[in-house]
Structures are given as structure tokens and as C-alpha cells.
Amino acid sequence: MHFNWKIGGEAGFGIMTSGLVFSKIATRSGYHIFDYTEYPSLIRGGHNTYEVHVSDKLVVSPQWNIDLLVCLNKETYELHKYRLTKESMVMYDPDVFEISEIHDLIPMPFKTIQKEEKIQPNMLNTVAVAASVAVLGGDLDIYKAIIHQQFDRKGKEIVDFNIKLADLGHTHATKHHNVTSILTKQLEVTQQVVITGNESFSLASVNADCRYYAAYPMSPASSILSTLAVMQRTSKMVVRHPEDEISVVNSALGASFAGVRSAVGTSGGGFALMVEALSYSGVAEIPLVVFLAMRSGPATGMPTWTEQGDLLFAVNGGHGEFPKIVLTPGDPIEMFELTQKAFDLADIYQTPVIIASDKFLSESHTSVATSTLKKMATEHKIDRGKIVTTTKQKEYLRYKTEEDGISEMLIPGQRGIFYQANSYEHLEDSHTTEDGDERIKQVTKRAAKQQTYFKNHFKPPQVFGNPEAEIVLVSYGSNKGSILDAINLLDISVAYIHFTHVFPLDEEQILKVFKPFEGKRLILVENNSQGQFGQLLRMHTGINLEEKLLKFDGRPFWPEEIASYIGNKEDAGDKNDDVRIINEEVSPEEHHKQKKALMDKLVREMA
Length: 607
Hints:
Elements: E1 2-10, H1 15-28, E2 32-38, E3 47-55, E4 68-71, H2 74-80, E5 89-92, E6 104-107, H3 110-117, H4 124-135, H5 140-151, H6 156-176, E7 192-196, H7 197-207, E8 210-215, H8 222-235, E9 238-240, H9 245-257, E10 261-266, H10 268-284, E11 288-294, H11 311-316, E12 325-327, H12 332-349, E13 352-358, H13 359-363, E14 365-369, H14 370-379, E15 387-388, E16 409-410, H15 436-456, E17 462-465, E18 471-476, H16 480-489, E19 494-499, E20 501-503, H17 507-514, E21 521-526, H18 532-541, E22 547-551, H19 559-572, E23 579-582, H20 588-606
Parallel strand pairs: 1-4, 4-5, 5-6, 8-9, 8-10, 10-11, 11-13, 12-13, 15-16, 18-19, 18-21, 21-22, 22-23
Antiparallel strand pairs: 1-3, 2-3, 7-14, 12-20, 17-19
Helix pairs in contact: 1-4, 4-6, 5-6, 7-8, 7-12, 9-10, 16-19, 19-20
């Protein structure tokens, strides 16, 4: 079973709260969810949406067709009707607008309820969610339990009033519409958390013993700051909001130099301000974890929309040559696993480690079994490498030349031992130098870390699907879920090569993964306009992915888009080199006109 619920309305109507609540109702009923939000970069106003893909099986991506559209205003229907089918249910207020198209209509007297109950428009979401629970055959008691969780701290009067609104919505929908069994509670319910990529990073950072997190709010990374701030009493983590990103990164380096695990979070514009300090981290060999949540650029671009446009910026960020590591998790589970690993890698290699997310992964919720997170948390053993509190060296050499490129890092405080950690090139004992031979020694030492990383910690890409397939998709990061679901939509054999360790790339290990697919149809899938990972892969391994499926309109890939592209090309027998760009206009009128025509065509072809 797959079902897609979507709610839309003006900012301030409680759209985000409603969507998250619906996700929790679904998971507490025993189902899996994936949800996705869209909202403009406005302080007030604008159109907000939240959609939840519900399934009785594991679900890892959004779904194109909307099965129930909840319209808290007319604009919601007009903007999203192109994704409806004749069987789609539409909840709306006929006193506000009429619908002439053929759908399964659910009239709801939102305006009348608002007037009679003397409530603000932002309280109608409670009515709408309860009405949705009713027509989908869900358990209203689950929703009422969530209401208690939300409002108990505000007092019994607030709780009782919200429950009254829920009863109103549920009763009206039950009386005036047939009840389905979409959300009927399962007999066995696995305990799940509804978690975003940002929340997964936050939890994993606590478990990895991060003791200092600093950030200047910048969507889509902002929620990490507030999440960790709430946790700081129990986590013993210092969480700071400094005056700008320069202060953010330098304070984190200071904390790391003092001996605690440190991290910062930002998006592209903030990362731009951090790159000088990133080079300082590289030359002074101070560990640092950087969470980079990509969004549509350049400059301010479209700050609340998604894109993978900063990959090469992350790889090349910072002046001069120094080792860094870039990881790209594909879902909250990989985010948890790789965040823990990132803190280890930063300590082991005494270098910056960048976790590259994007708006799609950072802000979308996925249902994850609680036992899965607990298992990853308990099984992880912290590895701080050669960071020590005392040294046995008679003459301490902070930057001692070592075969593996990693010198012992002494946390300041041992009596009688002093060293520098400034931004200059240095001798082994840390004093600054401009001697050519000493420069060569230190550059070579730092560079040796890469081979040590390849030997001990680099993880080659994972292959999903049929390893003997003739069609092979290549991608990384948050495209994972949509690609996996696209493969399941197809009746042809497809494989998928998924990268999580994108820099540095070990040519030898990667070529082994690609060797079985020589001569087959390889397609690069990226959420940017230039195929940045394809460029990186060609540069470091010689693998040239000439066929590309690129999207850069600020939206993520839908599985149906990927499946249709593959199916159409396969049917046509066209295996020539190709670049397919999905790049609609962002103006609502033109965007939706093109999208409707495109998806009508795709659905007919896939029927």
C-alpha cells in the first residue's frame, strides 16, 4: 500500500506542524513514512505545503500522485491539482471555492467552524488532520495522544479545546464521506522515530561525544542549532550562536585545540566565510567536523529549496593543498552512521571532515525503527586516534614526520611542554619556517594521510539492484531514496552505484566496483546543472559518465521522473550520449503548466 497525503495553505496556518503530526499518526499506526516540505523564503506569508508518503512497506522517497489533498485555501488546489488523478480525494471548503474537475470530494465547513468556534485560521489545521484521520480509517485516539504531548504544558483548557476541534473535524468527515482502511492501525506496531537528516546529525553528534557546536542560523542547517540547544543540559555540549560564521568556525577550532570534539553547521554562503579557517585547520592539523547543508545558489539563490550545487566547493574549499574528507549520506540512517564516523575521522587524521547534506535530506522526515538507532549508537566505539593528554616524547614534536602522515597531537596542559598551532608552515617542533626543505617535509607528511585513509577508512560505493544489469545509475547523497524507488517502478533490470565517501576518491577501489559494468549504459544522476560529481569522478578515476540526468529547479527527484527517463530511453533503443536536464521555470503558473503536461505524458506511458 502506498498513499500520499498533502496539506497546503498560507504560512501561519500551521502547515508544518500538521504535516509532522500526520507523519507521527501514520508511524504510530504501524506504517512507514517519508515526508517532504516546500515553503518560500519569506518571514511572513507565502504558500506552504507538506506531503507525507505512507506505506505498509519501507518508504524512502516522495510519491508524485497525490491521493488526498487537504486545501486550507483555494491556492492550494490551483497550485497542486496537476498532480491529482480522478481517484484523488480533495478536502476543501465549498464556501470558499468550488471545484469543477472530477475528484473524490470531501467538503469541510472550515470557514463556518472558524466563525462558530471563534478561532484563528492557524487552528483549522487541527480540524483538517482529524478529518483526514477519519476518512482514512485512522485511530483518533492516537491523534489525541499527540495533542496531549503538544499542549499539556500549556494547560488543560488548551488541550481540551484542541481535542474539541479534532472531534468536530473527525465527526463531520465521518458523516459526510466514506471511510477507508488506509490508516487502520496494524496489529503489530514497531516503535519508530520520525526523524530528519538534521535531527539524525544532532543525535549522532551527541553520541559521538561532540562537546562544542557553533552555528549562525542559515537554512537548511538552522534546526541543528535549536535541536542541540535543547539537548545541551543532558548532553553536556556547549552550543553557541556567535555573531557570524567566521567566529563560528574559529571558536570551534579553539575548542578542538583545547581537546574537545567540535562541529559547525552552515549552508553555502556561511561556508564561504569559513574557508580561510578551513585552511587553518588543514595546516595546524586541528580536527573539525563541518555540516554543510546545500541549497539552491549562487549567492542567496533560492534559500529554502534543494540542490547539490556545492559539492565541488566542499571538495575544493580552502586555499592551498591540504587533506580533507567529504562524506555524503543518503538518508537519516546513513547520516547517523557517517556523523559518528566523521568525528572519528577528524580526530584520527587531524583534519576537517565535511558532511554534505542538502535541504531535501536535512528537512525531510523518514520513519526509522528506534532499535536501529539504538543499535548504531551502542555499537559505535569512539576512536580519537593519536590525540593524547600526556606524551612520552622527551622532546615533544607536534608535527613529527610519520609514515602514515599523522603526528601525535597533545592536548595542551602537560607541565613543561609548549607548542604553537598557528597558521604558518612549521618545523616538526611547531616553530614557523620558510625553509624549502622543511616545507616539502610537512606537505609530504600531510599528504600521506590520504593513503592511510584509503587503506583504513575509505568505503567504496555500494551497488544496489541487479549486479548484472545493463543499465546502471550512478549518484550520491539524498538522491538515494528516489533512485531506489525508481528501480522498483521499472520492469527492466537496473543497478545503482551509491557513493557516500566522495572525497578523496580511491581510484583502485572504485575501478573494481565499476569493472563489471564496462560497456553498459551508465547514467549520472545529480541534483545540479553541471554534473559536479561526474567531473570529480572523471578527474580522480578516469571514469567518464557521458549520459546525465540533471535536475536543478530547486526540487528533488521524484522516482517517477527517473523511472520514466530510463524507460523511455530503453524503449526507444537510444543509447547514445545524452544530457537530460529537468529544469522547469520557477514561476508557479508556467512551472505547473509544464509539470502537468510532463507528468500526464509520463503517467500514460507508464500505465
